[in-house]
Amino acid sequence: MFIDHKYIEEVLESSKNATKEEIQEVLNRAKKSKGLSHKDIAILLETDNEEQLSEMYKIAGEIKESIYGKRIVMFAPLYVSDYCVNNCVYCGYKNCNTFKRRRLTQEEVAQEVKILEKMGHKRLALELGEDPVNAPIEYVLECLDTIYKTQNRNGEIRRVNVNIAATTVENYKKLKKANIGTYILFQETYNKPSYEAMHPKSLKGDYNYHLTAFDRAMEAGVDDVGAGVLFGLADPKFEVLGLMMHNEHLEKKFGVGFHTISMPRIKPAEGMTLENFPNLLTDEMFKKLVAIIRIAVPFTGLIMSTRETAEIRREVLKYGVSQVSAGSSTGVGGYTEREKGGSIEQFITSDSRSTLEVLKGLLDDGYIPSYCTACYRKGRTGERFMKLAKSGEIQNVCEPNAMMTLMEFALDYGDKEILEKAEALVKKESERIKRDDIKILLKNNIEKLKKGERDLYL
Ligand code: SF4
Ligand code: SF4
């Protein structure tokens, strides 16, 4: 198997007492963007000298700026079913929790989608528990169809990323045919004994089957996959090397690795507390991991959900995170029910600001909130996307797209303040575009948007 536990433990052990000089050598290499070896990553994980930490954040910030510019991709989760046959120790939806479970009807899915569209969202992450009887693949396909078909005035969902349990090549082919965006699956933990302890007696309990899910997805033609670890289940240093080895395995076998990595930290949920988890991450360690992953895999998007507080999200946006959710509900039917007092949530969120508040915060910090979904719609996925990203040309595409989608948002869903902030930002940022043809195109498209045209992109 491509996650070699003994090897990871040896690399971590041999880096344990890394000296200040050794850490500095790795930081110098990181600056040159020449890539990092497993040993380099393990050494960086040992950094705790204040000066070297600040240097590491600076390097990660520069790498992020050079690849992603100022744009931050926005998305929201949509939970459609909390039926689940598994008993993941850390999750509020686990089978042994007794509460009235539900699965949304297609009318209810459409209702949720309309609310999300009214919030300005264009990109969703479809979420549900694993239950082959109550929520089989056919149900997921129906939901996808409903989501793509549901429109609300100018609102439409243009990309649905799907987070469903590990499944067969056959089922992945069905998802591919239904036009999913990224297939998201968290390994939760790469450490096999911890994995087995966290997933007792369940479908999800088969470590190898779960670990090879992306292999089957890619065999089925899903070339856009998003990984993740639930930090807090096992040694975080082990997890970082696990993520790297998984990514390298896919690159070697299929020519393309993770499109995104999600970095949730374990949170309290219905029926569990954090007392029995000895590997919880401090904020300091969490920030360090974000920076190291950004340096190690510069072209892989880093996702942060509303599990984290507004303060932490703001901090890690500086040197790592490129995608955030906003205005999220993590309960089934949660957007419809939010006003009524809420449904059972999969976990407790920490950033409860509205979408508009999140956007204002991003704009005030100089970011361009982006609702762009152009790559996927132009078929630029998997290897084609990575080629473009690595060529640096994506800069001429993403930033103008981010500005157009921001203006579209501001015109349709923003208040006066958002519109003014967006206009000022677009004016300032468009000056920095180097190519005159792109500058002119952007200016013309912004005018077209003001006159009522929609969905313009490069
Ligand atoms: Fe079910 Fe997923 Fe929760 Fe596990 S993490 S109990 S599979 S919903
Ligand atoms: Fe993402 Fe592609 Fe849009 Fe760039 S152009 S923001 S890579 S979808």
TrEMBL record:
User: Which cofactor does this sequence's record say it needs?
Assistant: [4Fe-4S] cluster
Give one GO molecular function term.
Answer: 4 iron, 4 sulfur cluster binding
Task: Specify the Biotin and thiamin synthesis-associated domain's residue ranges.
Answer: 262-369
- Endoplasmic reticulum listed as a keyword: no
Keyword terms, alphabetized: 4Fe-4S, Iron, Iron-sulfur, Metal-binding, S-adenosyl-L-methionine
Pfam families recorded for this chain? Answer: BATS, Radical_SAM
Q: Which GO terms describe its biological process?
A: sulfur compound biosynthetic process; water-soluble vitamin biosynthetic process
Checking PANTHER family in the record gives: 2-IMINOACETATE SYNTHASE, THIAZOLE BIOSYNTHESIS PROTEIN
Which NCBIfam families does the protein's record reference? rSAM_HydG
User: What protein is this chain from?
Assistant: Iron-only hydrogenase maturation protein HydG
Task: Give the species.
Answer: Clostridium gasigenes
